[in-house]
Structures are given as structure tokens and as C-alpha cells.
Design a protein that fits this description.
There is one protein chain. By secondary structure, the chain is α/β, with parallel strands linked by helices. It has one domain: Alpha-Beta Barrel (TIM Barrel), CATH 3.20.20.150. It is 42% helix and 15% strand. The protein has helices at residues 4-12, 41-50, 68-76, 97-113, 127-131, 144-161, 181-189, 202-207, 212-218, 233-242, 246-251, 265-275, 298-314, and strands at residues 19-22, 55-57, 81-89, 118-123, 167-170, 196-201, 223-228, 230-231, 255-256, 280-283. The protein has an eight-stranded parallel beta sheet. Strands 8-9 form a two-stranded antiparallel ribbon. Strand 2, helix 3 and strand 3 (81-89) form a beta-alpha-beta unit. Helix 9 (212-218) runs parallel beside helix 12. It is globular and about 45 Å long.
Length: 317
């Protein structure tokens, strides 16, 4: 490499060191019905590639092509890799165990068919936790027996899909039953370290009152995938003071371009570097597009976030 800028660019394109992807949620593509305006697939993939990202995630079921051949073409023709897929599961309800397991296994088969190795598992959440997202207390969580059952479900899924070359990275998510630091620690404590890793979503951890840097330090060897996201201090204060519901908080700009919010990314990158993290950094900014939400430009957001992250990854190189 001729200079430090070339080194940073090489890292971003996976020649060595960190790799940077962008997820469809940055363009307002969400699995929740009625979330907002949804841009077309070609538009989103074209912009992801044009902006210099080399990977993306699957997004809501059916947004990207379901046929593996069509999906490989849609991504490969743009120089993109599929780096993960969000997989909401309900291991809180014994009656939902089988359906959750089967859904996860089926998704893992789709991922394996296109060379993707990370299933991003998450709790499916419910209306109760959505109503108190960002304001969860210890009394709002699961019992020890439920945590043990939850861990068994995740471990069973991880064992079932391991022969496919796909592993489970668990994603803490606001408005679900794994939002706070204590809840994240409970998932880690109830799952085998060699089977279930952590998808560290910096924005959702901060939204839930946690410290992403502390979590990265505490679970250093289990951070397999990182969602790079930042949180608006002003909107989060409104959530806590006024009880603003999670979907409304996102529409109001709850997540902001990386570097504009609460998360200490220089410290986070340093922590992940010390841990030897070599997985994907997936830039995300959860937004809702179209009226009545304030106007946003996903392209401009993604450019700002990518440039900021590249600066952090370049420091200390």
C-alpha cells in the first residue's frame, strides 16, 4: 500500500482486517408492517455498492430474492457479499419452540446456499416490550428458568446449523426481551461460548441503557458480528422522560449517522481491535421514510457513517 488512505480502503474491502457492509434498514427497509416507504431492491443494492460497501444483510424475508441463484446474481453483479440475516425467534414460549427452530434452520439453509455464514438471531419481542423500550427495569424480564430454556433453544439451533457452515450470533434489540446489559449477559451465560456468539449492535445496546464498550470488553471472545449504529441523545431523553414508543422514536430520528450520537466509537474500535475482532462491521441506521416522518437521505446518512467509521478504523493502524 502506498499510503495510509490506501490501507484504510483495503481494510474496507476485506483485503485484510475489518470489512464494512451496509444493511437495508438504513434505507428504511424493515420487517414491521406499515413501517414507512420502502425503496426498491435495485435502488438499495445499487447505492450500497456505489458507496463502496462490499457486503449487505438479507433484510426482511422476501425483500431480496428468495431463489439462491437470483440472490447470488443480484449481489455478485454488484460485487457484494451476503454477510448476515436477521432471524427473530421466540424461545420464551414453549409452544413456539418448534416453529422458531424450524424457521432458523430453513433460513440457515438459504444462507449456506449463497455462502453466508452468520445467522443474526434475535428475540421476537412483543407489544409489551415495545411499549417500554428504553425504560426496561429488572422486573420486566424473564425468570431464571425461562433464561435456561432460552439458552437451550439457541444452543439447539446452533448445533443444527453448524454442519451447514452457519453460526448463530445473537443480536440484542430494543423492544425485545434481550435489550439491557443484564439481559444480554443472561443470554451469554445460558449458551455455550463455542456455539453462540454476540452480534454487538451498538445502537440498540445504548438505546437500552447499556454500554457497548463494556460489553465488547466483557464478552470479547464472543463478538462475532457488529452492527454499527448510533443513538440520538435528545430522542433517547424524550423516550425516558415522556414514554415515547419505540416505533415513534425511530421515526423521530432516534438513530443518527455514526459519530453524531451517544456511542463512543473510538473506544469501541480500540476494544474490538484488542480482542482480535476480524468480522464484519455492518453500518445501520434504523429510519422510517415518508410522511409523517422528517425527511432523510439514506444515501447521505450512509456516506457520513462510512467516512466516520473509516477514520476510526484507520486510527492506530
Amino acid at each position: 500500500m502506498s499510503n495510509s488512505a490506501d490501507l484504510i480502503n483495503a481494510r474496507a474491502h476485506g483485503e485484510h482486517g475489518p470489512r464494512i457492509a451496509a444493511a437495508p434498514i438504513t434505507w428504511g427497509v424493515c420487517e414491521i408492517p406499515g413501517w414507512g416507504e420502502v425503496p426498491g431492491v435495485d435502488h438499495v443494492l445499487d447505492e450500497i455498492a456505489e458507496l463502496g460497501f462490499t457486503g449487505t444483510e438479507l433484510g426482511p424475508d422476501g425483500y431480496l430474492p428468495l431463489d439462491p441463484g437470483e440472490l447470488r446474481h443480484a449481489l455478485g453483479s454488484r460485487g457484494l457479499s451476503l454477510v448476515g440475516a436477521f432471524c427473530p425467534l421466540n424461545y420464551r414460549d414453549p409452544g413456539a419452540f418448534v416453529a422458531s427452530h424450524e424457521f432458523g434452520v430453513a433460513l440457515a439453509h438459504r444462507l449456506a446456499a449463497v455462502g453466508c455464514h452468520t445467522l443474526v438471531a434475535a428475540d421476537a419481542g412483543d407489544a409489551r416490550r415495545s411499549a417500554i423500550a428504553g425504560r426496561v427495569t429488572g422486573a420486566d424480564g424473564l425468570s431464571p428458568d425461562m433464561w435456561a430454556r432460552y439458552g437451550e433453544g439457541l444452543a439447539d439451533l446452533a448445533r443444527a446449523i453448524a454442519p451447514l457452515g452457519v453460526r448463530v450470533a445473537f443480536h440484542p434489540h430494543a423492544a425485545t426481551y434481550v435489550e439491557t446489559e443484564a439481559e444480554i449477559d443472561a443470554v451469554m451465560a445460558n449458551t455455550p461460548a463455542d456455539l453462540v456468539g454476540l452480534c454487538l449492535d451498538t445502537g440498540h445496546v445504548a438505546y437500552g441503557g447499556g454500554n457497548p464498550v463494556a460489553l465488547a470488553r466483557r464478552h470479547a471472545g464472543r463478538v462475532w458480528h457488529v452492527h454499527v449504529k448510533d443513538v440520538s441523545a435528545a430522542v433517547l431523553a424524550q423516550v425516558r422522560a415522556e414514554g415515547l414508543a419505540y416505533p415513534d422514536a425511530i421515526g423521530a430520528g432516534g438513530f443518527v449517522p455514526v459519530g453524531d450520537g451517544l456511542v463512543d466509537f473510538p473506544a469501541l474500535v480500540a476494544e474490538l481491535r484488542r480482542a482480535g475482532f476480524d468480522g464484519w462491521y455492518v453500518l445501520e441506521q434504523d429510519v422510517r421514510l415518508g410522511p409523517p416522518w422528517p425527511e432523510q437521505s439514506p444515501r447521505e446518512n450512509a456516506v457520513r457513517s462510512r467516512e466516520y467509521l473509516l477514520r476510526q478504523l484507520g486510527s492506530g493502524a
